[in-house]
């Protein structure tokens, strides 16, 4: 009887746990579905006032290094500056960030950030893009560059700041800007197009595996990884690569007319100092230095759009954080 009693309690606890898990899971699913139609379900736009961050950093350092009298005087002067700043209408600098991968995944956030900025920006304002990308898919980076063209078309100054790399598709984006600044050893250029793929046709033949491909249209497929490639297909594919390169060069020429394309459009890349000599950039400077100087005469706002994650991704993220704390 004692065994049966303990076994019954075990079953009751197990059933309670299962029901609790089902209720929590059901609640999460309902909340996810309920939020699908709401505006906030599209994502979140965060705005950081960089002037305030710089002021807080200066405040912390002054508190540590000044005497009591000196710090008191500093606080008094700070309050005076803040009052003057509130009375004065200053231009605004909107700071965007783009960290690109081969698929230009950051484009999802960039297009939302550009749209948000264009709803409030005036001709006297400026957009600074902190750009970091080694390039990737032609159509993806073409669209990313087109998003930046929206800023130029509104006659709003656009500055591209490259601290590490803006090559290939990354440079396609950078060249849209009115001005490009780069760190001395940032990598820029790589104005070229590349495509490569393996071919397993001989391996399939060796194992008596047939590969069949059916097309309507002579060049619907030029080269393939499984079929036997023809010289005609290779020539056509090379033509397509050359055409993409020609479009890339025309795009750079339209936005950087001072660049000698015959010399720089070879697919090579250059470090910042050499890029300046080739007029691929306009100034050697880090984004941090540029923004710090700009903060003296303008209000700086960093705009960050975060896309909405699925409820399962959010649940896994929270679970991971909880486990990490444990």
Walkthrough of the structure:
The protein is α/β, with parallel strands linked by helices and 326 residues long. The chain folds into two domains: 43-71 and 89-190 and 268-313, 2-enoyl-CoA Hydratase, Chain A, domain 1 (Alpha-Beta Complex); 192-261, no CATH class. 52% of the residues lie in helices and 17% in strands. The chain has twelve helices and nine strands. Strands 1, 2, 3, 4, 5, 6, 7, 8 and 9 form a nine-stranded mixed beta sheet that branches. Strand 3 (126-133), helix 5 (138-153) and strand 4 (157-167) form a beta-alpha-beta unit. Helix 4 packs parallel to helix 5. It is flat and about 90 Å long. The model is unreliable at 36-40 (pLDDT under 50).
Which secondary structure elements does this structure contain, and how are they paired or packed?
Elements: H1 2-35, E1 43-49, H2 50-65, H3 68-87, E2 91-99, H4 107-118, E3 126-133, H5 138-153, E4 157-167, H6 169-174, E5 179-182, E6 187-189, H7 201-206, H8 231-255, H9 261-264, E7 269-271, H10 272-277, E8 283-284, H11 287-294, E9 298-307, H12 311-325
Parallel strand pairs: 2-3, 2-9, 3-4, 4-5, 4-6, 5-8
Antiparallel strand pairs: 1-9, 6-7
Helix pairs in contact: 4-5
């Amino acid at each position: 009887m004692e065994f049966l009693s303990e076994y019954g309690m075990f079953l009751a606890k197990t059933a309670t746990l299962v029901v609790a898990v089902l209720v929590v899971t059901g609640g999460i699913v309902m909340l996810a579905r309920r939020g699908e139609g709401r505006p906030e379900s599209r994502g979140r736009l965060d705005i950081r006032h960089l002037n305030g961050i710089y002021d807080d950093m200066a405040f912390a350092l002054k508190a540590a290094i000044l005497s009591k009298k000196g710090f008191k005087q500093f606080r008094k002067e700070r309050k005076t500056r803040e009052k003057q700043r509130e009375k004065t209408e200053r231009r605004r600098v909107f700071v965007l960030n783009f960290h690109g991968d081969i698929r230009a995944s950051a484009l999802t956030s960039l297009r939302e950030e550009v749209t948000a900025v264009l709803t409030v920006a005036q001709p006297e304002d400026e957009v600074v893009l902190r750009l970091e990308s080694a390039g990737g898919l032609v159509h993806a980076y073409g669209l990313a560059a087109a998003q930046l063209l929206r800023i130029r078309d509104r006659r709003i100054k656009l500055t591209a700041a490259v601290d590490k790399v803006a090559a290939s598709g990354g440079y396609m984006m950078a060249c849209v800007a009115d001005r490009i600044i780069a760190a001395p050893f940032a990598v820029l250029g790589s104005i070229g197009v590349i495509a490569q793929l393996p071919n397993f046709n001989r391996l399939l033949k060796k194992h008596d595996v047939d590969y069949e491909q059916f097309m309507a249209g002579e060049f619907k497929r030029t080269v393939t990884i499984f079929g036997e490639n023809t010289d005609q297909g290779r020539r056509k594919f090379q033509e397509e690569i050359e055409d993409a390169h020609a479009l890339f060069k025309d795009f750079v020429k339209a936005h950087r007319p001072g660049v000698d394309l015959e010399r720089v459009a070879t697919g090579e890349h250059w470090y910042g100092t050499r890029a300046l000599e080739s007029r691929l950039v306009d100034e050697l400077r880090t984004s941090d230095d540029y923004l710090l100087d700009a903060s003296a005469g303008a209000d700086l706002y960093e705009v960050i759009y975060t896309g909405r994650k699925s409820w399962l991704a959010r649940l896994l993220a929270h679970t991971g954080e909880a486990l990490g704390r444990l």
